[in-house]
Amino acid sequence: MKITTARRVAQIFFLTTFLWLAVVATVGTGWMQWRGWPISWFLQLDPLAAIGTTLATHSLLPGFGWALVTVALTILFGRVFCGFVCPFGAIHQFVGWLGRRALRPKDKMAANAYRPAQSVKYYLLIGFLAAAALSAGDAFVGSLQTGLLDPISFLHRSINLAVLPSADVAFERLFPGGRFAVGAALIGGLFVAFVLLNLWIPRFYCRFICPLGALLGVLARPSLWSIGKTTAKCNECALCDVDCEGACNPMGPIRGSECLMCMNCLDNCPNVSPLAYVARPSPGGEVVGHGVSRRGFVVAALSGLAAVPLSRVGGATGRAWSPALIRPPGSVAEDEFLARCVKCCECVRVCPTNVLQPAVMEHGWEALWTPVLNNRIGTSGCQLNCVACGYACPTGAIRPLTLDRKQGLGDFEKSGPVRIGLASVDRGRCLPWAMDRPCIVCQENCPVTPKAIYVSEIEQTVRDGVLQVVSVEGTTLGVRGARLAPGRFASGDYACRLAGEERGHPIVANTQDTLTLDPAQKMPDSVEPGTAAEVQVRLQRPVVDPSLCIGCGVCEHECPMSGLRAIRVTADNETRDPRHAVLLSEHPS
Amino acid sequence: MSPDAPFPPIGPEATRRAFLRRALKAGAAIAATGGLAAWLWDRHPPGTLGLRAPASALPDFRVSDAGRRMAIVTGTDRVRTLRRALEAMGGIGRFIKRGDRVIVKVNAAFAAPSVLCATTHPDVAAELVRLCLGAGAAKVLVTDNPINDPESCFALSGIAASVGAAGGALVLPRAADFADGSLPGGRLIRNWPMLLGPFRGVTKLIGAAPVKHHARAGASMTIKNWYGLLGGRRNQFHQDINGIIVELAQLVRPTFVVLDGTMSMLTNGPTGGSLADLKPTHTLVVSTDPVAADAFGATLLGRTFHDLPYLSRAAQLGCGTTDFGALQPARDDVS
Question: Which domains are seen in chain B, by residue range?
């Protein structure tokens, strides 16, 4: 088998695997569901995610052992990850080939010439890693922003939040009831744009943008083997440049760090030629650098370093923290969260209710594409019996929880449940509080035991509800004082309190000038005409007990005030940051 | 082109024949445009929609010769009490015929395990599926539009697994399954999105609900269970909870209902969440009259139908009777 055939087989295998893991990332035990699939495996293979989180947090999670394999392979064999494994690279290569397959070799060669702009990716990498590495004691830790352009995060986001939900809109097979992602148009639009750029320059993203490719390019610098010549001279037919994916100039001197290990040059090279996969250094000559100038390095590093304090001065991780930034249960405190999250949105993908959403810019630019709860979207709030997101997160930004830990049961009774926020009633919008209409949907749906929402009951005289009795016939009172809407008070929620009586009589029917009272309740012996009769509504008004509320948002999701909800969750009182606590501790430590 | 250049000829030759041919094509194009417009013509343009009398969202699923019957069986094993109650009603064959397509409307509102009894017990759902299939039903669908995430609700409640094992088809509500439905003469259910998709071709409807306390309505039993057929911003109906339950009683005429009071949720309803909310009441009811079933269910909660205003109003409107004793319910014990 030709080496390029092997490369294609590997690319198809890994892209298919990636897509399969995207499809099955639905909580459940069905054959097309999560079961035990390692849905975040490609992120664990990703040395950029590993090095980024390690620089920012000074700890390397065990799952990133896979990244060591990638690192070792790259040091030994060059950027084989880019050529054989990377699923985003496979898409770029395929689209580039599709768009250019009919071109003349001369035009293909022109497109595959090395461009100085290929060093842009190294500057991006330097900036990202500098921002991640910056820490100033307890004042702040670094900001991990590699996920913005890390190809694995990028592809996870694009496929899971834009491509699959769009493809499924008409069928609802994968996502019954539909699937939503805030800002999906931006995520999907960038994906389409970068894929289409391959029609202009093949592997555009890989050559100019990809910070993971840049990292692997640096690691490949000392690689033991690479593409090269076996002799110093060849007949320089330049056929090797025709299909070169990395624009690395295989005819020599070759730029080893740009070589994507597509192996097309070996295929194109006439048999007489000396081009081969050889032990380095190649006699044909090599360009060892990355096109990064000292001045450029310093500027990129300083820019990355400066970006962190600049954004922190905005206050989003300090006193101006966003109360709307409700992180999923198990999330670490915000500054560490920003040092861990690689914006892959795997948590958003697996969330069974779709309440978990990618943040756009509303919580500061550092939080772009990190997970945040949006209780208006999706099928319900954060489910009491679900811990899926913590098991999808590859970087420990969301810690895996047991149900006992999440709910504060068993060994965790003393520490209590994990709270992600606190609900509060907007008494200016709540139907029973502000508009004298019964409701309490929030109280009913509160999943906490005992319920964190309780009701305060009141009998409230309705507007124009003060009437005078003019006649009595059995349990039907003729009244005057206001024209009543027929049937309006027959819903079971209204009562008529006669002057001098403690309790009202439930109203079972009304016309515009009569009230029929429940015969089951004894009427007074005589009701004089002129007696005052007040129509009252029995209201149950919801009140939140902050010591029980976990911030799950089911109440907010169910509130019938469909625009701005009358009960809303904010991140106040979240357990992940003691500085956000609201209540005094009730337990001695 | 210079101003005095000759006008370019339309065809090779401006003959009569060529003109006729072009005229024919022009005529065909105009006819095609007209035909397309006629095909797409909106005979109910916006503005007249509200004037159409809304048709009933659901047909009447009652079996005409079954009459109003009820069976009350005590015992702890739901499969046995259900089987015994249906035998006492004259057997499942009285209700389900060969070739019937049946919907079992369960209460799967919450993503909670079945032990908390906030949802229809999986044993009840599965046994209904088995009985219907045994009676020759062509297909038995089990569905609900739950409050929590649907997939989680059916999975955690155990309904998905038990129904699947029994040979029933679980229907998760999709956006495309909702269509506007109305109760003729109704005040609340008017062109309201309802879970009607699964009802295509369905000939029988069975409701299966647990006995639960409900903070707003007092109790949630067989009639309140139909709430799960509503979509949209249905929570608005809590402003008039008795009104909406009465309209559901009018709209939904099931083949029969099963009220499972093996364990009754006395407090913290309708979610519950703790075993402390439950009381063993060891009773299961099957009834062709949901009002009677709920009136009996109220007694399991230590109340009477007087405490649930929707029952009297539904009875007044001819949906059933609150005097369940008048149905002379068959009673038995299989504990």
Answer: 56-333 (3.40.50)
3-state secondary structure of B230: strand
pLDDT band at B45 (very low <50, low <70, confident <90, very high): low
Total number of residues shown for chain B: 335
A28-42 tens-digit pLDDT: 888 899 998 999 999
**Would residue A15 count as lying in a domain?**
yes
Q: How far is CA A269 from CA A114, A204, A243, B277, in A?
A: 19, 24, 11, 78
- Number of independent structural domains in chain A: 3
- If we measure between CA atoms, which residue out of B305, B292, B223 comes closest to residue A518? B305
Q: What is the pLDDT of residue B8?
A: 58
Q: How many CA atoms lie within 13 A of A134 on its CB side?
A: 25
pLDDT number for residue A589? 55
Residue A234 is part of which domain span?
3-146+192-279
- For residue A422, being part of any structural domain is answered with yes
Would you say the ipTM is above 0.90?
no
Under 8 Å between Cβ of A289 and A106: no
| Mean per-residue pLDDT over chain B, rounded | 91
Residues A485 and A446 in one domain: no
Measured CA to CA in angstroms, residue B180 lies from A147, A353, B54, B57 at distances of: 44, 24, 10, 8
Tell me: do A324 and A427 sit in the same domain.
Answer: yes
Q: Is residue A177 part of a domain?
A: no
Could you give the CA distance from residue A279 to residue A457 in angstroms, rounded to a whole number? Answer: 83
Check whether residue A251 and residue A322 sit in a common domain: no
Sequence-distant (6+) residues with CB within 8 A of A33 are: A24, A26, A27
DSSP per position, A80-118: HIIIII-HHHHHHHHHHHHHHTTS-HHHHHHHTS--GGG
- pLDDT tens for each residue of A41-64: 999 999 999 999 999 998 899 999
List the helix and strand counts (H, then E) for chain A: 22, 12
d(CA B311, CA A281): 90
Contact A446 B235 (CB under 8 A): no
Flag if A176 and B173 touch (Cβ within 8 Å): yes
Q: CB contact, 8 Å: B312 with chain A?
A: yes
Residues 6+ apart with CB under 8 A from A402: A387
A496 band by pLDDT with thresholds 50, 70 and 90: very high
| Residues A335 and A393 grouped into a single domain | yes
B155 close to A (CB below 8 A)? yes
What three-state secondary structure class fits A209? helix
User: What pLDDT, on a 0 to 100 scale, did the predictor assign at position B66?
Assistant: 86
Indicate the DSSP class of residue A220: H
Asked if residue A244 belongs to a domain, the reply is yes
Same domain, A391 and A521: no
Residues of chain A neighbouring B112 (CB-CB closer than 8 A): 384-385, 447
Do A491 and B148 make contact, defined as CB atoms within 8 angstroms?
A: no
